[in-house]
Amino acid sequence: MDKDRLEEYQAKRNFSATPEPRGGDTPPPARPVFSVQKHFASSLHYDLRLEVGGVLRSWAVPKGASLDPADKRLAVQVEDHPLDCATFQGTIPEGHYAAGEVLLWDTGWWEPDTQWSRTFKEQAARGKLPDVEAKLAAGELKFILHGHKLRGSFVLVQMKNRGPKNWLLLKHKDDHARRGYNVTAEEPDSVAG
Ligand code: MN
Known about the structure:
It is a single chain. The protein has one domain (about 5-20, about 30-185). The protein has four helices and nine strands. The protein has helices at about 5-10, 120-125, 130-140, 185; strands spanning about 35-40, 45-50, 55-60, 75-80, 90, 100-110, 140-145, 150-160, 165-170. β5 (about 90) and β6 (about 100-110) form a beta hairpin. The longest helix has 8 residues, at about 120-125. Manganese (II) ion binds near residues 39 and 41.
């Protein structure tokens, strides 16, 4: 893993005072992990994290993901987080960066969506692995979530006219799409045992 990727995350935190993991201790799992943490910070948001290249690429989603393909959810990219964060649940103390309760709202594994992505389909046809880093750098990633609440195909699209950090998170129309269903309201609780 490229440890330099976690410099910003680590520089912002005092690990003797916050229960968040420092990172760098968890070996990469066989299947890339994803998680969504419901974060009661100064304003409530849902942190979507996808494991890519040994770290968790992270987006703060103010309204959380939706299973309704009609919903477009703003997703603000934040610093990469260590893999250990994928299962983190706890309270970041007052006065510290990102203070507030963190609840593990969903977790599971994810994979690049080779059905919806022409690029991934072409790479697979040539016997190549989907180049997720390149798709993120280009500002669009189609992916399948295998979670407790979030399942099926989604896309993250960078809004290039709104600066590099602003993306949209959308659900594709597939068997897991649920029109008119408000998953964050209907299923508010932690998935941690
Ligand atoms: Mn957060």
